[in-house]
Amino acid sequence: MAKKLSNNDPESLKAAFVRWVSEKRQNRLTILITGKTGVGKSRLVNALVGEPVAKEGRSKSACTDTVTSYRTKIKGVDVVVWDSPGLQDETCNERLYLQDMESKLSQGFDVMIYCISMTDTRFYDTDKSAIRTLTEVFGSKLWENGVVALTFANLKTKDPDEEDDLAYYLGERYFWEKAIFEFLAELNVDLQVRQQIPIIPTGNYKQLRLHECENWLSDLWIKCFSVMSISSGLAFLKINESRLKYPHSSPATASTAAAARSSDENPMLMNEDENQSAYNPDHEDIPREIPLNQEQEDGLLKRIWNAFSEVYKAAKNFASICMAWWQSIPRILKSTRQMYLS
Asked: What are the AIG1-type G domain coordinates in residue numbering (predicted)?
């Protein structure tokens, strides 16, 4: 049922928008990250949420019959990260593993990130088997909320033949895009879904710039936001708002936001399966900022605005207000960030 705006002015629009975000945003964010041991899953997810949620370093064994979870609370949002390395180990008890996965993830997740090392020389059967299993367990709709991260992309920026670095890098990226696209076709994932799956090269924290992008973390963050539902996307935005650096924002604004985040109480991180502290005090390597370019900021605001508009568009005065105050809408969205994210 469409809602109504009380007055024909921008303040009414702003108040309705803030209220809608508060009602729409969920207070829980669930991330499933999977891939072979050693592909950088923990570092990647820690960079996305801005806290050392997942343990870094190699596990003693990838073979496990259980899916591991890590939890923390950021800005009032419960963040749950599920790690499933056992999918890529064919020596594990697949039946027990799948039973555990289906049970623990019965409530679903907001985004699935599948990690493949861009340095792999081919699309290994272990990854194909894991992708097939995930698709069978959760259905092809899994990929509507899925992102593929090509890790260690910074190691593919130099042509070994010293001829054309850019052509070499783009060729490596195209290989993976084509291989993944064709394999998902074999699994009967819809063409439209396959075409929309983000496949993002990611590197290390000291080399955020890759050949085709200024900042791979920004690209990954915005793509994860784009595949989430609007409710989970708003939660994802809230936990990262103080890290996001928008175009034309002043250095003072960015430093104030970073200071506000660092002053928050750092919660104890618990590995639920081991009931032990998984807190990592040394997280200086986690990037403090996620700079968005103008296109990324516009896309972010547009998606939020479109979702808001769906609720109010049937109101008699909504169209007239938007038409009269169209130039003010971007300003309204930007000016209410701190308000609707608090």
From this structure: 26-245
From residue 288, alpha-carbon distances to 25, 47, 64, 104 in Å are 24, 9, 33, 32
CA angle 80, 82, 284 (to 5 degrees): 70
According to DSSP, the β-strands at 28-35 and 77-83 are parallel
**Stretch (H or E) spanning 271:** strand 270-271
In total, the chain counts a number of residues equal to 342
Q: Helix/strand/coil (H, E, C) string of 234-261?
A: HHHHHHHCCCEECCCCCHHHHHHHHHHH
C-alpha to C-alpha distance for 159 and 59, rounded to whole angstroms? 32
pTM above 0.90, yes or no: no
Half-sphere exposure of 41 (CA within 13 A, CB side): 27
- Crossing angle for the helix pair 10-24 and 294-312, to the nearest 10 degrees: 90
109 Cβ contact list (under 8 Å, min separation 6): 30, 31, 32, 82, 145
Nearest to 47 by CA among 227, 221, 260: 221
Q: Are 140 and 193 in contact (CB under 8 A)?
A: yes
The pair of structure tokens assigned to 137 is 């367990």
- Angstrom distance (rounded) from CA 24 to CA 26: 6
State the Cα–Cα distance between residues 61 and 293, nearest whole angstrom. 40
Using an 8 Å Cβ cutoff, are 272 and 79 in contact?
A: no
Tokens read off for 157: 């920026």
Instruction: Provide mean pLDDT across the span 86-109.
Output: 73
CB neighbour burial string for 39-74, b if at least 16 within 10 angstroms, e if fewer: bbbbbbbbbbbbbbbbbeeeeeebbbeebbbbbbbb
Q: For residue 279, what are its two tokens?
A: 């807190």
334 vs 339: CA distance, rounded Å: 10
Read off the pLDDT of residues 324-339 as tens digits, 9 standing for 90 and up.
555 556 666 666 665 5
Are the CB atoms for 113 and 33 separated by under 8 Å?
yes
